[in-house]
Amino acid sequence: MIGIIGAMEDEVAELKKSMEIEEVVSAASLSFCRGKLSGKEVVVVRSGIGKVNAAVCAQILVDRFGVDVIINTGIAGSLDAAIDIGDIVISTDAVEHDMDASTFGDPVGQIPQMDTFSFPADEKLVKLAKEVNEKANPDIRTWTGRIVSGDQFVSSSEKKEQLISLFDAKCTEMEGAAIAHTAYLNKISCVIIRAISDKADNSASVDYPAFEAAAIRHSVRLIEALVPEIKK
């Protein structure tokens, strides 16, 4: 079973339209739509914004639906000058950038007493998603790399430069690392897919509304093409 998480309703609404929905299950104030997408058994759900909402949602997918693959789709701010608005970034790993226990000697982003600094994506899923997106969205570029997540909308050049310096990440958003963290603890496959909606700098509040819809279209097109190719 494949679980597909989007943070906002706009990010999952188009997927739901393409589904054959068999049941809707309510849990933790969330609505989980189970059915078929592109011929595969899936559960599509809007998690809500932020790391706690995302982690709760991911754990329910594991416990209630027995998913063995989680795809997190949505939008993000670019942290690499070469990555344009509309491009797709596929995670190789994810870090919670607002975790800071550096007082105790840990690097920023390291969760104390965890055996890993970053939460890896499934390498086969990363490769597959890249190949599929290059066919599904040939008009944009596809990138792979680290994604960082935190409970803040990054909209200042100063914060952007800090994230680049600390994490060498491709983009920043608010849920992916929490979902990757949950998948890591449950030993299941996960990948984060992000369409770039803004440059995560002083222009972000202007760029985001203008480009959100186009970014979501790219994500949805990729997910619909990716799901039937997953061999699980």
Automatic annotation (TrEMBL):
One of its GO terms (cellular component) is cytosol. GO terms for molecular function: adenosylhomocysteine nucleosidase activity; methylthioadenosine nucleosidase activity. GO terms for biological process: L-methionine salvage from methylthioadenosine; L-methionine salvage from S-adenosylmethionine; nucleoside catabolic process. Keywords: Amino-acid biosynthesis, Hydrolase, Methionine biosynthesis. It is an enzyme of class 3 (hydrolase). It holds the Pfam family PNP_UDP_1. Its EC number is 3.2.2.9. Pathway: Amino-acid biosynthesis; L-methionine biosynthesis via salvage pathway; S-methyl-5-thio-alpha-D-ribose 1-phosphate from S-methyl-5'-thioadenosine (hydrolase route): step 1/2. Residues 2-227 form the Nucleoside phosphorylase domain. NCBIfam families: MTA_SAH-Nsdase, PRK05584.1. This is adenosylhomocysteine nucleosidase. It comes from Sellimonas catena. The gene is mtnN.
